[in-house]
Amino acid sequence: YNALFTNISKIEKSPWDKISKVPTLVIIDPDDELIDLDDIQDLIKTKKMNNWEILKISNKKTLLKETYHHLIIDPLTVGKEEWVKIENKIIQHLAK
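Above: the chain's sequence. Below: its structure in token form.
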């Protein structure tokens, strides 16, 4: 997680006009334990990051006994249906 916080620090010091032009897909569970969805949405709005898109997903159909909303790595963690949704959205995003 130190790498995450280091990258956040670097991004905060970056020129927002360049970052906002990069088409970016943010995949997040609204109940994420580490990243606040409202903060991301506020950042996108205040920095006018019009090329950024948020895909909200759920892990309600996880196949794991313990669930972590921050864990989005495979069909087991989010369920097969959500995983297909993620895959399709990534393919669509990369085709832009």
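Residues 4 and 10 are 10 Å apart (CA to CA).
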